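note to self: dont lose this again. the chain is below, predicted strucutre after it. 237 aa total, dont forget to put it in the shared folder this time
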Amino acid sequence: MKKYVVVIGNFGSGKTELSLNLAFEEARAGNKVTLVDLDIINPYFRSTERKNELEEAGIKLFSPTYAMLGVEIPSLPAEIYSVFSNDSDVVIFDVGGDAAGAIALGQYKRFFKDIDNIEVLYVINARRPFSCELELNLDMIGKVTEAGRIGISALVNNTNLSQETSLAELIDGYDMVKRVSEETALPVKYTIGCEPVISQFKEYAEKEGLDPAFIGTIRPIERYMHRDWERYTEMGL
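---
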């Protein structure tokens, strides 16, 4: 059955990193993948920046026509509607970082309402200004749900400081995601991060007896948007 995944998060949450990781993983598994870049608010750190790598992996990319062109007013191509009828096995939506960005998603409500196999993930980075407090996350979830006209399925802990990430970030992220989950009754789908920190968190969680319900699946990810020096010198920004 065709699967749809919508990844939503505030600015700096890492939703694009998760979207890219999911897309490449599905492609490596032999699935036909379409990635829809609906981040019409933030012109930087967008999945469209990885267009060449996506195409090399056989992933079809749809994005606003202004992407990477310096155009201030975005326009969503009509061909995006084809993702609801094409032969993709998996369609991933990378949605803009606030309620205004979610409006772009809302226009597809009439298609989503008839889809059974859909998952909407809200990504939290407790080290970012818009996600560092419980009230800010609850407010964001409410606004996204209203503007995007779609319900959140699960939460993702992606608390990080890019290359400066330590175990402390994921622990604080666990605490925040736990509080959000308790307030909203939303389950936690993943705790994600780059190695070696994600493995350190796994060991810590087992040793300290952290509640698995607020961790979900511990999932290592690759860093595509904020590259280290080795990847930068090899592949550029």
